[in-house]
Amino acid sequence: MINNIGNSAQRLKLAVAVVLSGVVISVLVSVRIWSLSIDQHNLLIKRTSMAKSELIEHHFASSMPAIINALERMRNRWIARKGPPFSEWQLDAQDYVNDHAGLRAVEWVNKDYIVKWVVPLEGNESAVDLDLTFEANRKHALDQARDLKTYTLSKPVQLVQGGKGFLAYFPIFVGSEFEGFILGVFDVSLLVDSLLPHKFIEDHNIEILSGNEVMYSKKEAERTYDERTGHTHSFTLYDVKWDIAVWPRKIKAGTEDSNIHYIALVNGVLISLLAGVALFYLLKSLISESIISAKDAEHKATLENAIDGIITLDSNGVIRSVNGTAEQIFDRQRGNLIGQKLSVLFAEPYKTDYEQCVWREEQLGEGCVEIGKVQRVAGMLKNGHVFPLDLGITTFEIHKEQLFCCVVKDMSIAVKLAEEKEKLIQQLSKSNEELDNFAYIASHDLKEPLRAIQNHACFLKEDYEPILGSDGVYKLDRLVYLGAKMERLISDLMYYSRLGREEPDMARFNMVSAIKSTKSRLSEALEEHNVVVTFSSDFPAVYGNRTRIEELLYNLIVNGYKYNLSDKKAINIRFDENLKAFCVEDNGIGIDSQFGNDVFKIFKRLNSPKKFGEGSGAGLTIAQKIVERHGGRIWYESELGSGTRFYFTLKDDNQNNEGQ
Amino acid sequence: MKDSKLILIVEDSDDDFYATLRAFKRDGNLSNPLQRCEDGQEALDYLKEPWSEEHLKPAIILLDLNLPGLDGRHVLKKIKQDKRLCNIPVVVLTTSNDEKDIEECYELGANTYIQKPVKLDSLFEAIQKLKDYWFQIAILPKGD
Question: Is this model's pTM higher than 0.80 or not?
């Protein structure tokens, strides 16, 4: 799956996301388990609390009736004995007090609600001769018991002996005579403490309420009732509602147990984090491996499909591996090549050279190709066909073994093309040379008869002028003129062809001085045509044939004033820094853009000679040839009516320096 | 009195020879004898012969370069290599103004190189000056 996902960075991000979400989920599960475990633990404690509260109720419910029955029996015995003597009653009462722990005292109250007899006396001294009407609650209970002639339980009261409890009143009627009450004092603390073994209550807090009155409380100050671990059991006994609240003491809820939960939680979180880190590194290494294996496959495919043949050799020059291109070049299967020496692929003399060469990095150059260089050798097919082959060898080390990588390229087509190109170049230069020679010889040979024609016309005129008359003389003059014109055309043609043939002497010179000498050569013509030639003083150093460059300037200046109708003909020569070109600018008639490069065609004239004077029409052609012979380029910018800027470049000075 | 300083003109072209001749005779009094050879071989043949009253040693040679057969350069070389002839001034008079030709001719020992002027007037002027220089200003070696 990982392999299907884009690049390594994406894969790593995915892995981080997987690990992070795994860690988060695992931590959440740990926390949940921790919380469930605490709940479970609390539930167990709550159940204990519940059981204990029920046990307390059970004790209440079983001991209360026994006490009530006992007191009832005492009352009945009073009735049967029609008032027993105190000693007998005392013994009887003492027995009951001894038997029933919750019974703090048994008292006889006379018909005036005054406590007369008290057993035991010790601890209950304050009750002797107590008038029970002092308190409404007690009086009301006594009244109710007397009137209903049945026992009555008081509401919970603060006992005069101290502590809290309730009182049971048993009215005594002997016949119809009311003789007071047998009164039982229930002390809740005594009752509970006697009912519950020490062990039972030592690890729990207990609080017993009747109504809202706390009847019994045995609890730690710092631990309040908690619904999660405690239980409150409610029941009604003899019309009194009781609430028994039981909850664990601190020792029971205990740090030990809760620490276990926290330890479990911390453990869970730590394990999650550790597992996350481990998983992350595992995934990372898996991804790295998958990337490495993908890269390996990529490298293999790259080598297999390289444009050049690739052959790997071991440290003895024996073929270890061959790529598909090398198979194609040599038309052999790699199975037949692996294990053979590299030299089997070559024709003589390279076959012997490579058979004998020492496969050591520093020695390979002796007789074979130097490491890192390319050698043209002769490859050989199985059928003996020999072809040019470029071979380059590099070396590297794997597991301390020196290996060699040979890159081979079939040069058959390239060599053939190069040979054809060379042949064409030779043909072309021969043809150019012939053309130049032809132009020179033809023009040279044309000149002689031409001159003779002119000469004879002159002789004819000199010798026979009176006979010929003015018409004849005009025709002879015309003959001389046309001859001279043709002579000029031929001269220009000769000059042009010479420019093509000569190898001019090149030197570095100052453009300003070349301009100055051209200007002085032209001084008469410039004065005659009212031309001002200006030039800037900052030109780069020029490398070229000074004579030819002056001819170039000459032609451009003449062109600039010849085709110029301004009153003040101005020509400026400067170097354009932006175009890196020399510029000859005039304020002449301009060149119509439709003519384009026609201006550079030999003998091409754009204007009437009658208007702008005679010329062979070779000036700009010669200028172009000079620039071309200097490895430069010439062009112009012009606006009809406002002048022309001829630009030309010469081969860069630095390049010439290198070439020198 | 007839001047014995022979002018040898080596020129294949009748027209050019005629023009040159006319230029020499322009001022009306050419006292020097003239000898024309039409090609290089003829010139060398003439120069081979022993000198006599009838076969004068040239005082100056006007040599065209473009000659049929042996060309002017060859003739110039032969003259300048020949002890008997090397002191004769040779004026190369040719249509070529090729720098290579000029250089080569001077290297071979030419005394003057003149390009045949295009205009006849210029030719007349050039020949006149040549005449003035070689026959009036310069002192030529005595003939044998």
Answer: no
